[in-house]
Every structure is written in C-alpha cells, then in structure tokens.
Write a structure and sequence with these properties.
With about 280 residues, this protein is an alpha/beta fold. It has 11 helices and 8 strands. The protein has helices spanning about 20-30, 50-65, 80-85, 95-105, 115-120, 125-140, 165-175, 185-190, 215-225, 235-250, 260-275; strands at about 10-15, 40-45, 70-75, 90-95, 155-160, 180-185, 205-210, 255. It has a 4-stranded parallel beta sheet with strand order 2-1-3-4, with helices on both faces. It has a 4-stranded parallel beta sheet with strand order 6-5-7-8, with helices on both faces. Helix 7 links the parallel strand 5 and strand 6. The chain starts with 8 loop residues before the first strand and ends in a 7-residue tail after the last helix.
Length: about 280
Amino acid sequence: MTDETTRRRTIFFISDRTAISAETLGQSLLTQFERLQFNQVTLPFVDTLEKARFAVMQVNNAEQQSGAKPIIFSTLINEDIRQMIMTSKGVVFDFFDTYMGRLEEELRTTSSHTVGRYHGLVNDSMYNVRIDAVNYVLSNDDGASTKEYDKADIILIGVSRAGKTPTCLYLGLQFGIYAANYPLTEEDLVDRHGYLPAPLIPFRRKLFGLSISPERLFHIRARRRPDSRYSSLEQCIQEVSQAETLFQYEAIPFINITAMSVEEIAATVVHECNLRRRVV
C-alpha cells in the first residue's frame, strides 16, 4: 500500500469571488511541506448552490481517482454554500470559519456575511494610485528613460535578467510604489571601472541592487538567447561578479534573489528601504 506521505494530493481553492485569497493563504501553508507534491485546482465564483454541487462532484471525483482525500482551502461566505462544500469527500480548511467567530467575539458584533465586501473597501483613489504607479514603472523600465528618476521611490539596478522588471511591476501594482529600474550593461561594468553609470549618480540614495547566482542567470538567459555570448556561463559569472563589486564599492545595499519569489523580493525591498506603501 502506498504511504500517505508519498501520494500526490489534490488541492482545491474554492471561493465565491476570485479565489486569490484562498490561493495565497493556502499556498503559504503548503510551502511548509516541501517533500510533498500537489495538484492544485482553483474554483472561483462558486456563488450558487448549483456551482457548489458541481464543485463537490469535482472534489469527489478527485478522491475516487487518487484514493486520497483532497484538501480544500475555502473563503466562502454564504452559509448554505459552505455547508454544501462540507458534504464533499475533501478535508475542508475554511478560513472564514476559522477566524470569523473569534473576530466577532473580540469586536463584540456580528459580521455582515456579505460576499465581495473587500471590494467596497478599495476606493477609486486607491485604484488610481495603482494605475499611476504601474504606468510609472512601464515608462521607466530597463533604463529606457531616466528623466523621471526624481519621482522614483526606489531604483532597482542589476545585470540583465536579474528580476528587476517583475519586481518593479509588483511594487507598483501591490503597493503603489514608484519603482524604476536600470540594467547594468557590460559597458557600464567594464568602461566605468566600478563606478556608477552617470545617470544614476544624482539618485544614489534611491538605489537598491539585485544580484543572482551566475548559474541561475545562465539558465534564464539561455532560454531567451541560447548559444550566445550573452547567455554563456562565463559571461554570467563575470557580470555578476562585477555588479556585486560595484554594489560594495559604492555602498549600495543589495540582495541575492536566486531562491526568492517576486513577492519575497518586493517585500524585502520595501522592508530594507523603509518604503512607504501607498496601497494597503
């Protein structure tokens, strides 16, 4: 008989809205079980009993096929729909059921149990902040323009393909932070002999470096431009070494992002640089 810990478990994220919260909370817990493998299924907008019955059927089918109970992470609000999901053959972790009772007790009032209330908390001004910040990121990506660096909250620098653009986009979209980025090219690293590129000198205090292992950089670049000098391991080793030397010589704080997700990189940048979030 197959040991329970070696089975590939099916995970369901079920919500009456987008299921983003269920995914985020559930995946945060699953990361603590590195030796296990999971098939992840997201079921958003389960907001009727008919949809709930179909979700139960999917859960039960997964249980029948695998022989192991699926795990369900739920952020459902409607009580009837929640009870329907509870009839499945899955193991249900209901985030609202876990926390709402204690929260109602502490606040000495009952919750509204209204679907989609989160969106009422996000007003138009916050939406506009996100859009403005993302537009700034796109206009100041990859060193294409440096004329608006005075408006930047942070300027990420590093070699090509070190994660600068996705981190800036995440900072803009999630936190409303004006994030620019500047790629350290071979010319910057060699011709400047360890000194900052001229466009960055006036904004030294806004700079934060991203570094990466040469091996990881090699694999990333090889997918984009295989069999080129740009993607060779030798070139990656040289550029990473020169960039880190520059960071150290110019006293620019930096992190190695090799084993970090974009969410972790962004959170670290916000913390290390004490950036003010415009969106919470």
